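Form 7-S
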Amino acid sequence: MSISTVSAGPAVSAGPAPLPSTPPARRRARSRGLLLTWGFAAPALVVYATFVLVPVGLAAVYSFFNWNGLGGLERFIGLDNYARALADPVFLGAMRNNALIVILSLLIQSPLAIGIALLLNRPLRGRTLIRTLIFVPYVLSEVVAGLAFKLLLPPDGPFDGMLTVFGWAGPKPLWLADPDIAFWTLFAVITWKYLGFAIILMLAGLQGVPEELSEAASIDGASWWQIQRHITLPLLGPTIRIWAFLSIIGSLQLFDMVFILTGGGPLNATETMATYMVEYGNGRSQIGYGSAVAVILFVVSLVVALLYQRFILRRDLAGAITKNG
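Output:
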């Protein structure tokens, strides 16, 4: 009796071969590295959570209550504090002042800083001394600078006396007491205080502009102004955008100089969101209302920062990201 052999067909694959498991030594090294990373980051995260996240969260909670800082949180009023702030002409004027300071800083301080930085980047006798003198106002604290100008600018004060020496015979403006002038006086002091930082930042950015490009353009017949316009300024773009971001956020949160010089007056002409918040939250013991203003200021700053990063800094940040292959 013969036995026939029947073919069973093609062999069925049991699936892909299992990947080799990570060696235990490599897993332990990876775990140690992760543990070391979190160990170094933990103190900073604790400090950040304690002094940033927790206060922001508490301010958000307090903003829903009519609370004077004493006793428990009992009078829940929902969004009434926010509605009150957004309907207050004084607060709306403070927001307008902040926006105006942002715009003026970008339109006035930026060209001044770039122009002075370009001049100081050229060979010049005493250049180091000039750079130091320009940076001195920024080193001074806001309180010291504010008190100095408060002593210089009263009626018939030292500044008015200097104007008389230079031939101003008519009545002097009330620099800090006239509602039509006080805001512009404040902005002039702010420009004096922070222009040095912008100039130093621009000078640092100019050090990254290759001299070979300027020399090649000069050999081709380009003038100094053409070199700055078509070579230097485009390459200085990332520095300008970073300074603009810092200037915008600083202008939105401006407090120290205003509080020392004018306290938000006269007649709320120099009021900012930060001085308004302190006036009601601390000065009038309306902690709930002041917290609502603080949350509004936080949200405005956050939204502006995110939009600026999304639409202005996106190219610079994308160029700074590296990937390990």
